[in-house]
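A.,

Following up on our hallway conversation. Structure tokens first:
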């Protein structure tokens, strides 16, 4: 008999176990194979094993697993003696099985020694004993101390053997169930392990691909960014080229115009020269270097002069047209008067005629007929009929003049005598008209013809006037455009005038409620006309923004690029209280229409972003307010600012800086805007939300060229001036009056500086006020300056508007000396070393 132990069961065949794991049940064929693959040679001596095949009774039970124990009870009954051979169990490998091996001994309360004594193992040990006791069972055991397995023959009495076999069977059943449990456990563990493995692999794969995806995304983003940048760059290029094209076209046009003028000049010259001798002509021709640049410049100058002359002629023509127009109005008034007088006379004549008719109606019918006949013939009779006819015609003529209708001349009027008389009257009328500009009482009889002439002349004059005005406006616009272009070009390298942009705000609700009406109108993009009690006054600026202009349009016109290019730029808003300075510079209160300041922040960082590959930038800012003649740092709390002393200084290049003021760096437009908001919160603002202090923001931009190492510094000053106001008008008292006085004082100091500069006086009183000291580098200094003149369109602010317009006209005349602030690489490095040295010294001292 062969008892398959649990250990062997485990090591028996992995194939077998795998199949079992997959199928959960073992097929009878497989079971059979398992039995057959067992090494039977080891058990040659075992009579049970050797005879197993010849047994008529089936010894393989219906149990499914290998290691299952066949029911031997029958066999025991049938074959009284049997030799039991137990496969040795490795205790280390399967302690459970070893326990099973001896458990039945313990359960039977038999000690090992007792058991051995009882079965007489010692006495029957050795090869001699083998097969000599057919009435005992043999059992292989392992001594606990033995290293190698030892086969021990145990002779068990039949009765005990039966008991033993039953016990072994039970143990084996328990073992089998234990095996099944282990297999199940193994199966489960295997499944869990494989699932965990799968999950781990899946997670690993997912992470790997996620990483790959992220990398690809990043690369894609970089590419997209590069493409966007390239696109913007090309768009910018295209725009620049388009602009250049436009300018080129304009220049072509200008050249064509110049050419025409030149032709005219040449024709004129030729005409003149024809009068001179041919020798003189030859010599003069040889003198003029027509091909040279100087000559072209001369021609250009001549042409410009010619244009100027033409314009002044046009202006004269316009003035003449105005005069004629005014005289015509006067003549019309006289016509009206005449028509009225004539009507009165007509009525009188009609009345007297009616009276005569009534009187004569009492006479006989014949007499009546005679009288009527007399009335129908003007050349006969008492003349009242003729007078009536004359006044009637005159009335018709006057009416025609008044309404502009064509007079209808009856056939009776058109006899020879009448025509001759008419011609005579026309001649006289023309004479009178040329002499006096209007008709006199003697000429009023030839009304039909006179009227026609007058109307034609009026129409002609009106057309001419319109044409002159149109030409004049077009010419002026063109001139201003060219002037601006020249100024733009000039501004890059040397002296440039301060640009003045005038912005007219819409009527406010308060002004509408006061029924204020608009007294200012834009003639074109460069001129405004103001209605004053002394008549209209025209002002010209570099650009006029009408009330409909948006913040975007206003910002587009102002320049922000220059500070990055290394120029100093100053943009300041000037105007009376409530004229729209803060709206232009900062925007409205709920930030829906941001003004120049926030837009400039965005623009600066856009430009920086576009040039990052070529330059390295550093942006820092300070923010000050000038309140009651005191400079206060807005980047610190009001309490701290009060104890701080800020002094205005100038560096070697004349650049103004505020010593003692906090300068903060910003890495993005958002950061800069946050700093600005923080500063605004610390400002002095009146209860009416009107700014009662001057706001000065300085943005310093340092750019280092990565290719050649040169460093350029630009400063952008953004100034929102406080509004001037008349204390008498606002009724300010106490603190408000003090504020107003301080504001007016500083603005008047600014006015003094402006007039000194515009009149090119040797001394400019910058030091009279802190405001002028702060703006010293922007007015007449090393800066490109842009002034926004804000005005109200309402008649309620006529005086303030007029004053502001005159003030701004003076500013327009100031010339600045804008220069680029560039340091070479060596100077920049030297400066860096100096700064480092100062820092180190400060650290060790
Ligand atoms: N162009 C404009 N379009 C619409 N509203 C405007 C415009 N300009 C100014 N306003 C409005 O007019 C009012 C006065 O403008 P703002 O406060 O800017 O004037 P200010 O000159 O700065 O006055 P102050 O000197 O008293 O501070 C505000 O309500 C503003 O919203």
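Then the amino acids I'd put at each of the 845 positions:
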């Amino acid at each position: 008999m062969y008892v398959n132990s649990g250990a062997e069961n485990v090591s028996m065949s992995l194939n077998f176990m795998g199949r079992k794991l997959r199928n959960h049940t073992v097929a009878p064929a497989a079971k059979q194979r398992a039995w057959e693959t067992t090494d039977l040679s080891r058990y040659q001596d075992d009579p049970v094993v050797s005879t197993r095949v010849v047994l008529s009774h089936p010894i393989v039970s219906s149990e499914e697993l290998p290691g299952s124990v066949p029911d031997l009870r029958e066999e025991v009954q049938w074959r009284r003696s049997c030799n039991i051979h137990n496969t040795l169990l490795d205790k280390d490998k399967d302690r459970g099985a070893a326990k099973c091996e001896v458990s039945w001994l313990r359960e039977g309360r038999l000690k090992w020694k007792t058991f051995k004594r009882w079965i007489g193992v010692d006495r029957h040990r050795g090869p001699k004993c083998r097969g000599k006791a057919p009435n005992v069972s043999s059992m292989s055991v392992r001594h606990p101390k033995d290293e190698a397995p030892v086969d021990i023959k145990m002779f068990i009495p039949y009765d005990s053997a039966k008991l033993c076999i039953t016990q072994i069977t039970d143990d084996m059943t328990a073992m089998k169930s234990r095996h099944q449990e282990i297999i199940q456990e193994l199966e489960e563990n295997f499944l869990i392990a494989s699932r965990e493995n799968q999950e781990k692999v899946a997670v690993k794969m997912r992470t790997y691909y996620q990483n790959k995806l992220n990398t690809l995304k990043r690369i894609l983003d970089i590419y997209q960014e590069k493409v966007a940048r390239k696109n913007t760059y090309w768009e910018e290029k295209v725009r620049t080229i388009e602009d250049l094209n436009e300018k080129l076209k304009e220049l072509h046009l200008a050249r064509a115009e110049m050419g025409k003028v030149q032709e005219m000049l040449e024709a004129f010259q030729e005409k003149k020269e024809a009068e001179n001798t041919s020798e003189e002509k030859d010599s003069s021709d040889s003198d003029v270097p027509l091909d040279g640049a100087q000559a072209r410049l001369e021609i250009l100058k001549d042409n410009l002069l010619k244009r100027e002359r033409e314009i002044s002629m046009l202006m004269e023509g316009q003035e003449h047209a105005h005069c004629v127009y005014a005289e015509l109005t006067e003549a019309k008034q006289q016509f009206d008067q005449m028509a009225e007088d004539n009507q009165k006379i007509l009525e009188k004549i009609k009345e007297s005629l009616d009276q005569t008719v009534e009187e004569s109606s009492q006479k006989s019918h014949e007499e009546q007929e005679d009288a009527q006949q007399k009335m129908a013939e003007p050349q006969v009779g008492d003349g009242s009929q003729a007078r009536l006819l004359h006044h009637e015609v005159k009335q018709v003529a006057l009416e025609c003049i008044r309404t502009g209708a064509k007079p209808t001349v009856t056939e009776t009027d058109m006899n020879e005598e009448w025509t001759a008389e008419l011609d005579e009257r026309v001649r006289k009328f023309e004479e009178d008209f040329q002499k006096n500009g209007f008709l006199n009482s003697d000429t009023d009889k030839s009304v039909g013809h006179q009227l026609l002439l007058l109307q034609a002349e009026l129409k002609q004059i009106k057309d001419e006037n319109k044409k002159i005005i149109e030409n004049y406006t077009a010419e002026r616009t063109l001139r201003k455009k060219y002037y601006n272009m020249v100024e733009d070009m000039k501004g890059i390298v040397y002296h440039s005038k301060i640009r003045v942009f005038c912005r007219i705000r819409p009527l406010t609700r308060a002004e509408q409620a006061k029924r204020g009406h608009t007294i200012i109108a834009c003639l074109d993009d460069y001129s405004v006309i103001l209605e004053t009690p002394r008549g209209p006054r025209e002002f010209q600026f570099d650009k006029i923004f009408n009330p409909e202009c948006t913040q975007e349009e206003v910002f587009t016109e102002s320049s922000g690029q220059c500070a990055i290019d290394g120029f100093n730029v100053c943009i300041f808003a000037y105007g009376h209280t409530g004229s729209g300075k803060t709206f232009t510079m900062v925007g409205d209160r709920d930030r829906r229409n941001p003004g120049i300041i926030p837009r400039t922040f965005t623009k600066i960082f856009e430009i920086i972003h576009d040039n990052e590959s070529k330059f390295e930038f550093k942006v820092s800012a300070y923010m000050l307010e000038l309140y009651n003649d005191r400079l206060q740092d807005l980047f610190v709390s009001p309490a701290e600012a009060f104890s701080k002393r800020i002094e205005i200084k100038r560096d070697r290049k004349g650049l103004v800086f505020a010593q003692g003021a906090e300068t903060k760096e910003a890495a993005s437009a958002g950061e800069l805007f946050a700093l600005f908001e923080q500063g605004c919160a610390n400002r002095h603002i009146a209860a009416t939300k009107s700014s009662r202090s001057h706001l000065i923001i300085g943005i310093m931009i340092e750019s280092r060229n990565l290719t050649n190492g040169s460093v350029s510094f630009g400063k952008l000053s953004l100034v929102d001036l406080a509004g001037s106001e008349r204390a008498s008008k606002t009724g300010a008292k106490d603190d408000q009056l003090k504020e107003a006085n301080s504001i007016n004082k500083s603005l008047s100091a600014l006015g003094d500086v402006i007039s000194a500069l515009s009149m090119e006086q040797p001394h400019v009183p910058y030091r009279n006020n802190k405001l002028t000291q702060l703006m010293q580098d922007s007015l007449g200094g090393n800066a490109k300056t842009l002034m926004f003149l804000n005005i109200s369109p309402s008649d309620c602010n006529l005086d303030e508007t007029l004053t502001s317009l005159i003030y701004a006209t003076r500013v327009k005349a100031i010339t600045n000396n804008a220069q680029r602030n560039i340091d070479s690489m060596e100077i920049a490095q030297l400066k860096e070393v100096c700064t480092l040295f100062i820092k180190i010294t400060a650290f060790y001292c």
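The mean pLDDT is 70. Curious whether your intuition agrees with the design.

B.
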